[in-house]
Amino acid sequence: MILWLSGCALTGGKPVDSNSQEPSRTAEPAPFAPAAVSKERPAASPAASCGKLPEELAFAGKTYLLKERSPAAEPGMKLGYMKCEQGRLTAGDATDPFTVYTVGDPRTNSDILLYGDRESRARYMLEESSR
Asked: What secondary structure letter does DSSP report for 63?
């Protein structure tokens, strides 16, 4: 450790190439350029990739129909996750932007809530033929 510190002192704090006593010629890191930061929403954003939520939703082998957008109902038990692929909602995992919840007691209410960002929240009811 002492040799390294004294080596830095001899070379003005720059790293030394192991084969010579000359400071290595590495490029300095580029400065941060704030202008390069995009102001667009990330590609994974539900609103950017799916537009608006579908009128019909397939989840857990059943078909659900849109009942209301931006529902006031509170989410119940978490049922799963969904992701948007090529404009369609499909089964996903915990890293995906949509979460599916029950509404109230699932023994007496078959509705589900789909939560994404603020613009992507909806309540769906089970289609009669899926019961």
From this structure: E
Number of CB atoms found within 10 A of residue 14's CB = 13
Q: What token pair was written down for 126?
A: 């089970």
Question: Cβ distance 67 to 125 under 8 Å?
Answer: yes
SS3 state at 108: coil
Report whether 64 contacts 125 (CB < 8 A): yes
Tokens of residue 54, six digits: 């579908």
pTM above 0.90? no
d(CA 105, CA 95): 26
Q: pLDDT tens, 69-108?
A: 989 999 999 999 999 888 889 999 999 999 999 998 889 9
Residue 16 has pLDDT above 60, yes or no: no
- Residue 53, classed as helix, strand or coil, is coil
